[in-house]
Design a protein that fits this description.
Elements (H helix, E strand, L loop, with lengths): L6 H22 L16 H10 L1 H9 L12 H21 L2 H5 L1 E4 L2 E4 H25 L13
Antiparallel strand pairs: 1-2
Length: about 150
């Protein structure tokens, strides 16, 4: 008989599959690519890493009806890696703190009221979208990216 995951565990697993691959990708990016951007007005590599690192708090802030925390944009890829690592720990703790009943409570995001579990699925979809962008950035910077998700989670 298989151990069935709780909804909280399922959300954590899906987020970690993407976040672990993101961290693996960011570890491969060269410092020289930090200020590169694919088009005028697009995010630089550093800005995209910053966006990915801090955006989970946008979703948590919506759930908690508070202002989001926006850390300063790092100056280097190394600083962006460190920010990603630090916020990953905090965000993983936050995700793990949700109970099954918490996930069924309503939250308002983008003027929509929906269960918190749906807000967290939006978080995962957002992360996957921008991680995909960073995979393209990496290719354009000459980096061979890792597999798109971590299947070991």
């Amino acid at each position: 008989m298989k151990n069935e995951l709780t909804t909280t565990q399922q959300v954590m697993k899906r987020w970690k599959m993407h976040r672990n691959a993101l961290q693996e990708l960011v570890a491969l990016l060269p410092e020289s690519g930090g200020t590169w951007r694919p088009w005028d007005g697009g995010m630089t590599t550093i800005e995209l890493i910053h966006h990915l690192a801090m955006t989970p708090d946008f979703f948590f802030a919506a759930i908690e009806s508070r202002d989001m925390i926006v850390p300063p944009v790092p100056s280097t890829i190394s600083e962006a890696r460190e920010l990603l690592q630090q916020l990953t720990v905090k965000h993983e703790q936050k995700l793990a703190s949700y109970s099954e009943s918490d996930l069924q409570q309503d939250a308002t995001i983008f003027e929509n009221v929906e269960p918190i579990v749906e807000v967290l699925h939006r978080l995962i979809g957002h992360e996957a979208h921008h991680k995909g962008q960073l995979f393209v950035y990496a290719r354009m910077l000459g980096v061979t990216p890792p597999f798109y998700v971590d299947l070991s989670v």
